[in-house]
Design brief:
Structural class of chain A: alpha+beta
Shape of chain A: elongated
Distance between the termini of chain B: 64 Å
Radius of gyration of chain A: 28 Å
Number of strands of chain B: 1
Strand order of the largest sheet of chain A: 6-5-4-3-2-1-19-18-17-12-11-10-9-8
Helix content of chain B: 55-70%
Order of helices and strands of chain B: HHHHHE
Oligomer: heterodimer
Number of helices of chain B: 5
Largest sheet of chain B: none
Radius of gyration of chain B: 25 Å
Helix content of chain A: 25-40%
Chain lengths: 463, 104
C-alpha cells in the first residue's frame, strides 16, 4: 500500500476537522434547544450506583508498596486479608527490605489486625503480644505525634471514620435528587446534605454527572476545603474504576500549649501549634476493578490501588503507595478476634522459625567461634532446608522468607561462599523478578553493610 | 431586518456559548483529576487570631511541623492505608453498600 501524499493527508485532516466541528456545533445547538425548551432539570436515567453483592466472606492476597519520603524509607509488604460484611482482618506475612529495621510501628512480619463493629484487635503472634480496643472509639481530636511513630491500634479511628463515611442505598434518594438539581442541591449551600448516621460527619454531596458509564460527584465534609471528588467509570453496568482526589487536609497536631514571656510580648504569650496542613499537595487515587467469581456469583473487586500526588502521579513509575490484590477466594469461616494470627502459630514450620529467631537474637553479629556446636549443627540443617524449600516455593513472599532465613543462618555460621554463590543472588533475583528492583538494591546494600560491619557492636544495634 | 428565527437562533447561540463557559469554569478538567489541582486553601484571617499569637505561632510552625509531627503523620497515612483494600472489598460484598473509596 502506497503512503498517502502529504498534501492529501492535510486536506483529509482539515475536512475531518470541519466535519467534527460541525457535528459538535449541532450537538451543542440541540442541547441548548432541549435545555431552553424544557426549562427543567436535565433528565436522569436510573443511576448505575455500584452496590455490593452478598457473597459471604472472602480472602485475598495483597502486596502493598509504600514510600515514606520524609523518613527516607521504602517498604513492600505481603499481606493476607479476610473480609466479611461485618468484619475485616489482615496478617502481614512478609516485608522487605528485611535486613534492618522496617519502617512500621512494630515489627510488621507476624502482625495481624481484626476489626468489627465493636472491637479492634492487633496481635503480634511471633512476639505474643496483643492490643485490644473496643469500638466506637473517641474521635481522634488533636493528633498526638509520637516522635515519628504511630501506634498501630490508633488505626481504629481511621477504620471508624471510614465506616462512618460510607454510602449505602439509603443515601440514593439524596444522590438522585442532587443529580436532578445538577449538583446544586437544595439552595441552602452547595450540594445536598446526606442523612445523619452514627459516625458520619455532617456531609454534603454534589452529584454533577450521572451517565450510564460515568458517575461524577464530590463530597464536602466539615468545610468546603475538605472536599473529595469521585469519578466512577463503568462498562456495561460493571464497575471498572474509581478515580478520587482530595486536596489539602488540615490535621490538628500536637496537643500542648506553652506560656512564655518574650521581649516582644512582656505580658506573656501562649504558644500553640496551629493545625498542620497535611496532604498539602493532595492525594489522587485510582482503583481498578475486575470481575471475580466468588462461589457462583461474579462480583467487581479491586485489583489495584495507586495513590499519587501532584508531583508523583499515580500512573507514573513511583506513586507514593500501591496495593495489588490477587487470589480472591471464598472463605468458609471468617477469623474472629480470638483466632487472628493463628495462621502463623498453626504453621508446621512455626516451631523451627521460633528457634531460628531465638538463635538469631543470640548469635547475630557475633564471631562464628561463639556459636555453640549444637546450635551450629541445628542452624546448618535449618539453612540447608530453607534453601531447598525456597528453590521449590512458587509464592514470592514465602520464597523471600525462606531465602532470608537461609542467608541469615549462613551468615551466623560464616558460610560466605554459599551466600555469595547461591542464596543471596537467588534472593535478590526473586525480588527483581517480582518487580521490586529498587527494594532489591536496598536489600543488597543492607546485606553488604551488615557483612562489612559484622562483629561491631554499633552494627548489632541496628538489627 | 432580522427574522424571528434569526433572533431565536442568535439567542440560542449565546446560550450555548455561555453554557460552555460556565461548564469550563465549574467542572474539574482533566488537569485537575490528574493532579494539577487548583484548590486554594482559604487564607487565615489574621484578625481572627489574638495579635500576640500570630508571630510566634508562625515562627514555630516551621520547626514543629517539619519534625516529628509530619513523620508521625506520614507513618499514620501508610499504616491506615493497610485498611483500604479491606474496606473497599467490604463495600463490594455487602448488600446495600455503595462501593466507594475510604479516605485514609
Amino acid at each position: 500500500m502506497s503512503p498517502i501524499p502529504k498534501s492529501d493527508r492535510k486536506r483529509s485532516v482539515q475536512r475531518n476537522r470541519r466535519l467534527r466541528m460541525a457535528g459538535v456545533a449541532w450537538l451543542a445547538v440541540i442541547a441548548g434547544l432541549v435545555a431552553v425548551a424544557g426549562d427543567a432539570p436535565p433528565p436522569s436515567a436510573p443511576a448505575p450506583w455500584p452496590v455490593g453483592k452478598a457473597v459471604g466472606a472472602v480472602a485475598f492476597d495483597c502486596v502493598v508498596e509504600e514510600d515514606a519520603p520524609l523518613a527516607g524509607a521504602k517498604t513492600v509488604m505481603f499481606l493476607e486479608y479476610a473480609v466479611s460484611p461485618r468484619a475485616i482482618a489482615y496478617s502481614i506475612v512478609w516485608a522487605e527490605p528485611c535486613w534492618k529495621a522496617i519502617h512500621f510501628p512494630c515489627p510488621p512480619i507476624g502482625t495481624s489486625l481484626y476489626a468489627d463493629e465493636s472491637s479492634f484487635v492487633v496481635r503480634h503472634a511471633l512476639n505474643d503480644v496483643e492490643w485490644r480496643q473496643s469500638l466506637p472509639a473517641e474521635p481522634r481530636g488533636r493528633f498526638m505525634h509520637t516522635c515519628g511513630n504511630y501506634p498501630l491500634v490508633d488505626s481504629r479511628i481511621a477504620y471508624q471514620e471510614a465506616r462512618g463515611r460510607r454510602l449505602t442505598v439509603s443515601d440514593v434518594p439524596v444522590l438522585e435528587a442532587s443529580a436532578r438539581s445538577g449538583g446544586l442541591g437544595d439552595g441552602r449551600g452547595l450540594g445536598s446534605p446526606l442523612p445523619d448516621r452514627p459516625g458520619r460527619p455532617p456531609t454534603r454531596i454534589s452529584v454533577s454527572d450521572v451517565e450510564p458509564e460515568r458517575l461524577h460527584f464530590y463530597f464536602f465534609t466539615f468545610r468546603p476545603d475538605d472536599r473529595r471528588l469521585f469519578e466512577y467509570r463503568l462498562e456495561k453496568g460493571r464497575l471498572k474504576s474509581i478515580l478520587t482526589e482530595c486536596f489539602g487536609v488540615k490535621v490538628p497536631v500536637g496537643g500542648f500549649e506553652i506560656e512564655a514571656k518574650t521581649p516582644e510580648f512582656p505580658d506573656g504569650v501562649v504558644i500553640e501549634q496551629l493545625p498542620a496542613r497535611y496532604h498539602a499537595d493532595g492525594r489522587t487515587v485510582l482503583v481498578d476493578f475486575s470481575p471475580q467469581s466468588i462461589g457462583d456469583v461474579e462480583v467487581d473487586l479491586p485489583e489495584r490501588i495507586r495513590v499519587g500526588t501532584q508531583k508523583r502521579h499515580f500512573g507514573g513509575p513511583d506513586p507514593i503507595r500501591r496495593a495489588t490484590m490477587s487470589n480472591y477466594r471464598s472463605l468458609p469461616e471468617m477469623p474472629s478476634a480470638e483466632t487472628i494470627g493463628s495462621r502463623f502459630t498453626s504453621d508446621p514450620f512455626f516451631e523451627r522459625e521460633q528457634t531460628f529467631r531465638k538463635l538469631t537474637a543470640q548469635y547475630w553479629n557475633r564471631p562464628v567461634a561463639d556459636v555453640d556446636p549444637a546450635d551450629a549443627a541445628w542452624l546448618q540443617t535449618f539453612a540447608d532446608d530453607c534453601l531447598g524449600m525456597a528453590r521449590a516455593e512458587p509464592r514470592l513472599s514465602a520464597k523471600l522468607k525462606l531465602s532470608y532465613m537461609s542467608i541469615a543462618s549462613d551468615l551466623m555460621l560464616g558460610n560466605d561462599s554459599r551466600v555469595d554463590s547461591d542464596s543471596l543472588p537467588s534472593y535478590l533475583q526473586a525480588l527483581r523478578d517480582g518487580g521490586f528492583g529498587e527494594i532489591a538494591e536496598i536489600a543488597s546494600a543492607q546485606v553488604a553493610d551488615i557483612r562489612a560491619n559484622w562483629g561491631r557492636p554499633e552494627a548489632d544495634s541496628e538489627k | 431586518m432580522r427574522s424571528g428565527w434569526q433572533t431565536v437562533l442568535g439567542v440560542l447561540a449565546l446560550f450555548v456559548i455561555a453554557n460552555g463557559v460556565v461548564t469550563m469554569l465549574t467542572e474539574p478538567g482533566p488537569g485537575q483529576w490528574f493532579g494539577a489541582s487548583t484548590a486554594v486553601e482559604p487564607p487565615i484571617d489574621p484578625r481572627a487570631l489574638p495579635i500576640n499569637r500570630i508571630g510566634l505561632a508562625g515562627e514555630i510552625e516551621a520547626d514543629t511541623f517539619t519534625g516529628p509531627s509530619l513523620l508521625s503523620l506520614e507513618m499514620r497515612e501508610n499504616v491506615d492505608f493497610l485498611l483500604t483494600p479491606a474496606l473497599i472489598v467490604q463495600g463490594a460484598i455487602t448488600e446495600g453498600d455503595i462501593v466507594t473509596y475510604p479516605e485514609e
